[in-house]
Every structure is written in C-alpha cells, then in structure tokens.
Amino acid sequence: MGRIEESIEIDAPIGAVYREWTAYAPLPACMRGGAGRGATATEVLPLDRIAWSGGPELPGHSGVVTFHRVTDRTTRLMLQLDTEPHGLWDHVVEGLGFTDRRVIDELAAFKAHVEDHRQHLAA
C-alpha cells in the first residue's frame, strides 16, 4: 500500500477553500471523498476535515483532507491518500511516482481554480 501526503497553501479563506473542495468536479474521485466511483465519506467535519474510503470499487483506497487556517486570507490544505495498486500497471505507475505527480498537479490546479474564482468574485 502506498501513502501520498501533500499540502498546498491557497490564497483564500478557509470557508471558501472548503466550499470549493466539496464542489470542484474536476478532482479525481480518489481525492475528493464521498463522490464518484463508490467512494464513501467516513467523516465530515465542515471547515476541518473530510475522510473517505474507496468502497467496493476502489478497495484499499482511502484518504483525508484537512483545512488549516494560516491567516484570515490564507488556508493550508493537507491531503493524505492511501492507495493499494491492483495489477501490474498500477504497481508500475505508483513505483515510478506518477501517482504522486498527479496529486501534486491536481492540487496545483485546484489552488489556481480557487484563487482565480476568488479574484472574479472580488472584481
């Protein structure tokens, strides 16, 4: 089983980051928790954390995302994913670090989305 832990600081208040995380459709099901491909939320504490299990369609997959107030205008999002590769291809992808890279890229895209969305609301 592999564990991926990443964090990112987002220039937006914690409430905005939390709302966007729960509504941001482009996130893969294995990262969002409780959405798509059978993932089931196991714990939801608004503005604090969302934990999930992959369910029958993603056995061995689980995760938690936590939201941390850095300042009134900045939030640190921390993501922890536990994955269990199934089959040779999954083992190769994980072994080469592609899963980690995808998580980093998805978090960067989420950060850009939140910050861009926030700028449009302020304009």
Kindly report how far apart the N and C termini lie.
45 Å
How is the main sheet built? 5 strands, antiparallel
Q: What helical percentage do the residues reach? A: 25-40%
Uncertain spans, ≥5 residues at pLDDT below 50? none
Shape: globular
Strand content: 25-35%
CATH homologous superfamily grouping: START domain
CATH fold-level label: Alpha-D-Glucose-1,6-Bisphosphate, Chain A, domain 4
What topology, given as strand order, has the largest sheet? 1-5-4-3-2
| Average of pLDDT | 80
Q: What's the helix count?
A: 4
Number of strands: 5
> Structural class given helices, strands, pairing?
alpha+beta
**In the residues, how many domains can be counted?**
1
Radius of gyration, in angstroms, nearest whole number? 15 Å
CATH architectural arrangement: 2-Layer Sandwich
Order of SSEs: EHHEEEEHH
* CATH class bucket: Alpha Beta
Protein name: Coenzyme Q-binding protein COQ10 START domain-containing protein
Organism: Kitasatospora setae (strain ATCC 33774 / DSM 43861 / JCM 3304 / KCC A-0304 / NBRC 14216 / KM-6054) (Streptomyces setae)
